Structure formats: C-alpha cells, structure tokens
C-alpha cells in the first residue's frame, strides 16, 4: 500500500472525513475501528483507503525542510492523518472530496507537499498525473 499524509490544525477530523465519504460516495463501504476512531473505506475488492490519526508532525519522518514548511504554514501545532491506500484514482477522488481547501496540506510521499486546494487543482489540471513518476 502507498501513503498520503494530510496535515491540519485540527486533531478531530476522522469522523468528519468518514461522514463526507458516506454522504458523497454512496458506492463505497466504510468500516470503523471503534476503539481508535480509524476507519477504512473501500470500493470493490481492489481499492481501499485506511484513515489513521497519527498525531504530531514530529512522528511522521519528514525532513527538516518539510517540517519547516509545515510549521510556518500553521500558527498552532498541526495534526497529521495518514491515508494508506490501494488505488491511486480512488485516493485522488477522496482527496478532492475531503481536502480541497487551504486548511490542509497534502504530502503524496513522492516529492509534492502543497496546500490542499493547490494539490487538488494540480490533480484536476493533470487528470492522468501518476505521482510515482515524480520520484
């Protein structure tokens, strides 16, 4: 599985993400991990995304330049969510739904770290963007 990191000022967004997906993507199934609040969304048997709250930016493994960018972007201590996925087109669709806002930063783990709205705009301008080619 591959990963995308989502950064926000808020640490309470898993339920919000889950609700958006259930309301807007009716062809997906959502399974909730009751104790942690993490959840999985699936479309068919070959595409899925595991949503997990990771906490602090210090726990993720960004390099110093990335950490500085993230710290400068937010006025408070940011929170990190990981989206571990199978199916790049599905994760693109979900990111467009949940993170198309300057409130978020998106890191595709392939060299692109942008505000959410700019990341989504980049995906929309280049619908065939396969970000692993950027490595």
Instruction: Return the structural class.
Output: alpha+beta
Inertia-based shape = globular
Number of domains: 1
Largest sheet geometry: 7 strands, antiparallel
Question: What are the secondary-structure elements, in order, as H or E?
Answer: EHEEEHEHEEH
**What share of the residues lie within helices?**
25-40%
| CA radius of gyration | 14 Å
- State the total count of DSSP E strands: 7
Bin the strand percentage: 25-35%
CATH architecture assignment name: 2-Layer Sandwich
* Strand order in the sheet with the most strands: 2-3-4-5-1-6-7
Q: Low-confidence runs (pLDDT<50, min 5 residues)?
A: none
CATH-defined topology: TATA-Binding Protein
- The helix count comes to 4
Mean pLDDT: 94
For the terminal residues, how far apart are their CA atoms? Answer: 16 Å
CATH class: Alpha Beta
Helices, strands, pairings?
Elements: E1 2-8, H1 14-24, E2 29-32, E3 39-43, E4 47-56, H2 64-73, E5 79-86, H3 88-98, E6 105-107, E7 113-115, H4 116-125
């Amino acid at each position: 599985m591959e990963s995308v990191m989502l950064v926000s000022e808020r640490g309470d967004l898993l339920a919000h993400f889950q609700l958006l997906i259930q309301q807007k993507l009716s062809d997906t199934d959502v399974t909730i991990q009751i104790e942690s609040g993490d959840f999985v969304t699936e479309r068919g048997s070959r595409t899925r995304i595991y949503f997990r709250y990771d906490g602090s930016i210090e726990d993720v493994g960004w390099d110093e330049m990335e950490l500085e960018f993230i710290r400068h972007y937010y006025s408070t201590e940011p929170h990190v969510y990981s989206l571990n996925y199978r199916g790049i087109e599905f994760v693109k669709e979900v990111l467009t739904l949940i993170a198309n806002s300057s409130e978020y930063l998106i890191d595709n783990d392939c060299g692109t770290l942008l505000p959410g709205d700019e990341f989504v705009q980049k995906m929309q301008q280049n619908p065939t963007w396969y970000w692993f080619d950027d490595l």
